[in-house]
Amino acid sequence: MKYYRKLVGERLYLSPINLEDIDKYTEWINDLEIAINLGNAAAVFNQEKEKEMLEKLIEEGHHFAIVSEKSDELLGNCGIFDLDKIHKTGEIGIFIGNRNFWNKGYGSEAINLLLDYGFNILNLHNISLSVYSFNKRAISCYEKLGFKVIGNRREAREIAGQKYDEIYMDILASEFEGRIFDQLKLNPEH
Question: What SUPFAM superfamilies does the database record attribute to this sequence (predicted)?
């Protein structure tokens, strides 16, 4: 597959989503462990439905493939959506579908690049997300990156007879230490 380095980290980069990855995305979105964390375990995605979803993400314009810097291997995707340009807010979403890259900090690195893009390129002031209370790994990752819990919807998700809260978190531009100027070697004072 062909990828383009839009935002580059230490071990990965964010590239525009490539529709040629449809088979991999369809495989991942039908993986129950991934789908539960995304909140769509009950949905069944064939290639056509996943293609429609990817085309919609591409059209929205702020969604990226997460790609390994070392091997150019697709890891997952992330994006910023529900942009409000007047109030300078947006939401983020992410998933790492490639299990070989789980629990190794790749999600944190991708979110950090995405936040940098949101705050320093899109000029957002507030970026939020939601996560289910059973997803302890994701919650820990978000907290380490500076997200703060701003509320929750109690018992919003039921899985196998157990009820879980949906937790809402956000981060402000003033709480994020970006790196776009460092990466581009621009002088922000001019």
Answer: Acyl-CoA N-acyltransferases (Nat) (SSF55729)
Answer yes or no: are the C-beta atoms of 109 and 12 closer than 8 Å.
yes
CB 8 within 8 A of CB 58: no
**And the tokens for 38?**
């995304």
Closest CA to 115 of 143, 92, 132, 97: 92
CATH number at residue 133: 3.40.630.30
Total domains, the chain: 1
φ, ψ for residue 54 (rounded to 5)?
-65, -40
What is the CA 9 to chain-centroid distance, rounded? 15
189 occurs within a structural domain: no
Task: Note the pLDDT tens digit of each residue in 4-37.
Answer: 999 999 999 999 999 999 999 999 999 888 888 8
Q: Is 161 left (phi over 0), alpha (psi -120 to 50) or beta?
A: left
> Whole domain around residue 144: which residue ranges?
7-184
The answer to whether position 2 is within a domain reads: no
The predicted model gives 108-128 an average pLDDT of 96
In whole angstroms, give the CA distance from residue 138 to residue 36: 13
